Structure formats: structure tokens, C-alpha cells
Amino acid sequence: MDNYTSNFKKNPANNWVNSLPCLPLAFTFLFITLSLKSYCQSFSAGGLHSVIVCDDNTINDFGYNGDGEFGNGSTLDTNISPSSPGITNTKQVSCGTYHTLYLKNDSTVWASGYNAVGQLGDGTLIDRLTPVQVIGIPKIKKIAVGAYHSVFLAYDSTVWTVGYNGYGQLGKCSGGNVSTPVHLTITGVKDIAAGYYTTNVLKYDGTAWACGRNDRGEAGNNVDYSNHTCLWQVYQAGGLTSISKIFCSAGRSSYFIKSDSTVWACGLNNYGQLGIDGVATPYTRTPFQIPGLPKIREIDGTYYSATFLAYDSTLWACGLNDNGQLGDGTNVNKSSVVHLAGITGVIAIAGGNNHIMFLKKDSTLWACGDNQYGQLGDGTGVDQWTPVQVNGLCPVDIPLPIELLSFDVYKAGNKVRLTWSTASETNNSFFTIEKSLNGTDWKPIGIVNGAGNSTHEINYESFDTEPVTGIQYYKLKQTDYDGQYKYSKPIAINFSENFSFSIYPNPVYANSGTTVYLNLNQSSEESKPILVVVYDAMGREVLSKVNIIEKNNGQVTAVD
Question: What is the pLDDT of residue 211?
């Protein structure tokens, strides 16, 4: 149900573009090496199918396709990873039980597959064998898919949902299913996650919120087990504060990574998927810290299991293992966390109903678990208890030394704030922040020193103190001690100035000779004109005048 995307996230092979062997193709932010190889940009495991997006725009799918999940115009299953025609410029993919979402480089979202409850978001209930555009949403930066519903995070930090609402997982507080996305009232959202019948939201203030099915405590409210039709804040009093990442399993469990890299969880635990004995504690509505884990940076899993990726690239897992989905070489369930010693060099994971996929540092993709429809991509229909390599997908030449976890940009008053974090660094001298107004011509606007060598997460921050009104683009240039450098992919922000103001005296009477003052409550960094229009109580224009706000002095100005 979950997915991995390397656009500004997690995969060092995609976050950084080597300055020597790579050439930019165009403003689509896609790059190709001189060897004409490509790497895995995004991959997702669904109910019974898997989808992989390579950076050269090819899409490979395998597994069940009976409802058009592949979007290739057919309903034929496959276990040999065919390319899906007609889907281009895709940067992220997310698979549900029987449908697939595609996030394109232009920030539009497209969907294919099963649509009986409107989960494709095209305003109909018609299954689609080829992708259709999701309607009624702004520009989207992340997608997440549950069993029969879809969730969208916009660049303005708003959240939109569509599809099945039988348990309130759309978070719209009332009503049934919808086939056109609805806008939720929550703001300031950093991340989203979707479970089978749940939706979780992470805000920039480090709080988590949840809605949907809750009869096993998956909403983590510590109050009751009733379903939540509105977003409800996850219980904090037990210590669950400063949350940095969220994850919903394909089943009915929720997981949270705190800023200290500890993992907390709540919900269903019938197979020990929360890392504690499932007989003694079959479920819990109060989030608790999972014991026995090192510092964790990512979580994913299957319906009744969880897999944890540590900062040292080791894997840990617990829960149901009847199809070998834990990847430990057995089909024995694990009610406490175990170290998967046989799987090394992993940088990303994505889990479906009963199978899971691993991306390694050499950009090879591996999978284990349920394979009845060939969803592991190994050319067979046999379950695999240890990971097998997915055939013929997205190789890369050289793994790069910096693992960029995130790169974000947003408005901070009259400035633009840029934040990024690294999971590890090797010989990293410094970062250069570069800016462009057209996506083609770049200039440096700042330098931030790197950590040199590091094996833990480090957060960085910089500001653009001279943004312009409209769209501007930013990218990072990372330089090693030896002078070698790499570029991140660009990100964009649409910057607009918001003035708060007051007028006094107010009201004022005509022909009174009174001078009216406008207080902008904001200093301007350059002299600029503003148009002031005054209306009377009847709505008639009585004054129109251009005033000049002087540099660093925009507090009070006379209107007339």
C-alpha cells in the first residue's frame, strides 16, 4: 500500500546528480548518465501488484492487472515487468489494493484501475484501463493510497481526499463516498500516509492526526475505539511528541518516528506487528515505544507486519510471516523485532498486502513474500522467503556519498526558508544554494558548511532574503573536499507578499481636512509603489492614489 519516491527523498542515487557523468535533459528535472543507464526513481507495492518508475520515464509493472492497475490498456497479469505505454513524466507512484496513482512532474495526478467508490478522483465510478487525470485539486507534491481511497498533499500544505468513506477515512467529518476530491480543513501539513481504512497526517509542528477505522485503536486517541470521521490528534501525553515521520500499514496499525529516531506505534497487534506479544496485547489505542530497535529512519510493511530501516542500512522486522514477507528465510511469525542479517545495503522499502520490496545502494531492487500473481517481478509465481532480485530494472553506475533525506522550501514572512537533511555524509565540504527565476539560469545565493563525515541525520537551514513575487526555483550544489560536486533536483515555490494593514482615523468624514494614515505593519526591503483605493460606506470610490513605501520604512504612510 505504501510507496517509495526518491524525489528529494531518501535515495542518494536520485537526490544528487554527479557533475561529471550526468547531463540535464530539460526542465523536467530528469537526468541521464553517459552510459544511458537509468535508476529507480519511485516504486510502490499494492495489494497484488507492483509498479516501478525509472528516471528515464519508463514504467514497469508486474502482478495482478485485472482492473487495469497497470494503466496500459489491458487487464492481463504479468510477472516479467513490461513497460506501460502512455504514462510519461511521472515522478512518484502509489498503489492501492486495485488502483494506482501517478504524480507527474507538472504536479498533476493521474489514476488507473478499480473505481467503484470513486477512488480515482475523476468524478466517475468507471474503472479505467488507462490513466485519467484527478480533477479539482491544486498542484500536488505527494500522494498516498489506502485500500479504496486516495490522499493528496498540495504544495500549499493542504490535504485532499477521495474515494471510499465507510469508516470516515476521508476526514471530511460527514457524508459518504466521493468521486471528486474534498479539501480538509487541516493546515500546515508536512506529510501524509494512508492505511487500509485510515488516513494519517503529520503537521510541521510535530503533531500527528488521524481519521478512519479505529476499532483496534489505529487512530491512537487513547479515548475510545470508535471510528473518527474527522481528523483527531494522536495522543501525546505518553511521550509521543516531536514526530518527524508517519506510516500506516496495509492492515490496521499506525507507526510514528520521533525526532530522536525512536519508533512508536498503536493499533492492531494480533501477529506481533507492533513488536510486542500479540496474545497478551492484541491491540492498543495508546501509542508506545517499540523496544529493541536501533535509530530508525524509515518504516514500511505488509498487512500484518512491519519492516524498519535503520540509519546504518540494517533491516528489522516483526509480525506475520506466512508468505515469507519478513525476508528472514522462514515463514515463522515474529512477535518481537528481529534483525534481518541477510539483507544489507538497503536505502528504501515499500510494502504491499503481503509482499515487500527493497532498494539497495547499488540501485538494484529486491522483493520477497506473496508472489501468486508474479508481483515480486522475478519471473515466477512462487512465494519467496528470502529477497530475490527484480529482473532488469533501472541500474545505476555509482552510488553517491551523500544520502539526502529531504529538501523543502516554504515562505517565512518576507523570506524564503530552505531546509534539508542528510542521513549520512562522506567527505562533504559544503552546500551552495542556487536560485533561478526561469529554471534555466542559476546563480548562487548562499553557502552552508557540511559536516564532513557523518552517519546520523543532520538538519540544515538557509534563507533567501530577496525573493521575488511569483515562482522561483532552488537547488543544492554539494561539494566534496576534493572539489567534486553534485546537484540536487530543483524545487519551486510560488512566493506572494501578504501585507497586514490598518487605517486611522477610521471612520473619517468627507471635507473634514483630516489626514488619513495607512499602517502596513511590515517593513519593505526596497522602495516600491502601492495603489491605495478608498471607498465610502456605500461602496463608492472616493480616492485612488499611488503611494511610495520607502526602503526599510513602510510602517506608516500618509494616504491624503
Answer: 93
